[in-house]
């Protein structure tokens, strides 16, 4: 039997509304989101045990108590939720000017990700970016990891504090950073210059990393001021993109101290 038009429209509206929200899960990610005043909290689903562990952080939203054996939040089957899930809206960080104005003291640093779609990698990069004081992580709106529960869990809380900007055109965003005085350094395992040599100096740095395997796209590569490699001595001469980001971020901060 064909569904009535009003039922179809209602279901479509419900799906559209659901697409605008994010389900975060895991005690650490949920606690950090609850404690973040920038987060719009919509629905908290917890077991009694998890509610106890969240403590005062859970007081900002009414909790729905769920059975530990049949967790009612709409998560993926293999999600390690630890009895806590929070429906929220994605964070809005404003534009790059807002992020640069709020950046930590010292040399300005931005990370640009070219089609890094794996949320585990993107989350780990956000975590490293926060540790090393990056003003923002910038990625294209399409063909990159969106803000999801998987990304938030991999970021271990950093998603609440580290700006993650999604832009229409990454090449244009890099050119905009260069116009602001940034030096754009693209990571490339075949480059002649090492990352330590490429980031020497005092000007702001934009580290540009591509997806594993594919690397930087031609347009993004051309937009970079220079290409650099992470010096390796072992037989295996490449790193996971999140590890490469951490090493490169450290190199920038180490150069700042020299």
Topology (elements, then pairings):
Layout: H1 5-19, E1 21-25, H2 27-34, E2 41-46, H3 48-54, E3 63-65, E4 84-89, H4 96-101, E5 109-114, H5 119-131, E6 136-140, H6 149-155, E7 164-167, H7 170-179, E8 183-187, H8 195-198, E9 205-210, H9 218-223, E10 226-228, H10 241-257
Parallel strand pairs: 2-3, 5-6, 5-9, 6-7, 8-9, 8-10
Antiparallel strand pairs: 1-4, 2-4
Helix pairs in contact: 5-6, 5-10
Task: Quickly list its features.
Alpha/beta knot; single chain; 258 residues; 10 helices; 4-stranded mixed beta sheet; alpha/beta
Describe this structure in words.
It is a single chain. This protein is an alpha/beta fold and 258 residues long. The protein has two domains: 5-89, 60s Ribosomal Protein L30, Chain: A; 96-257, Alpha/beta knot, CATH 3.40.1280.10. It is built from ten helices and ten strands. It has helices at 5-19, 27-34, 48-54, 96-101, 119-131, 149-155, 170-179, 195-198, 218-223, 241-257, and strands spanning 21-25, 41-46, 63-65, 84-89, 109-114, 136-140, 164-167, 183-187, 205-210, 226-228. The strands form two sheets. The chain has a six-stranded parallel β-sheet, with helices on both faces. Strands 1-4-2-3 form a four-stranded mixed β-sheet. The longest helix is centred in the last third of the chain and has 17 residues, at 241-257. The relative contact order is 0.14. The model is unreliable at 13-18 (pLDDT under 50).
């Amino acid at each position: 039997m064909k569904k009535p038009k009003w039922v179809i429209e209602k279901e479509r509206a419900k799906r559209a509304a659901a697409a605008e929200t994010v389900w975060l899960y895991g005690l650490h990610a949920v606690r950090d989101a609850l404690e973040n005043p920038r987060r719009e909290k919509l629905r908290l689903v917890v077991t009694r045990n998890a509610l106890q562990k969240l403590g005062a952080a859970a007081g900002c939203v009414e909790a729905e108590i769920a059975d530990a054996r049949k967790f009612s939040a709409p998560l993926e089957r293999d999600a390690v939720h630890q009895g806590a899930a929070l429906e929220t809206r994605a964070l809005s960080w404003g534009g790059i000017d807002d992020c640069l104005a709020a950046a930590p003291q010292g040399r300005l640093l931005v990370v640009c990700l070219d089609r890094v779609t794996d949320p585990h990698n993107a989350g780990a990069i956000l975590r490293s970016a926060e540790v090393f004081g990056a003003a923002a992580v910038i990625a294209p709106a399409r063909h990159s990891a969106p803000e999801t529960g998987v990304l938030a869990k991999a970021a271990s809380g950093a998603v609440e504090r580290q700006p993650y900007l999604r832009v229409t055109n990454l090449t244009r965003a890099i050119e905009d950073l260069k116009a602001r005085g940034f030096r754009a350094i693209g990571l490339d395992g075949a480059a002649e210059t090492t990352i330590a040599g490429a980031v020497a100096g005092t000007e702001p740095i934009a580290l540009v990393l591509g997806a594993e395997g594919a690397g930087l796209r031609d347009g993004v590569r051309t937009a970079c001021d220079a290409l650099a490699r992470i010096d390796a001595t072992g037989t295996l001469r490449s790193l996971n993109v999140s590890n490469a980001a951490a090493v490169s971020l450290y190199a920038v901060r180490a150069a700042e101290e020299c």
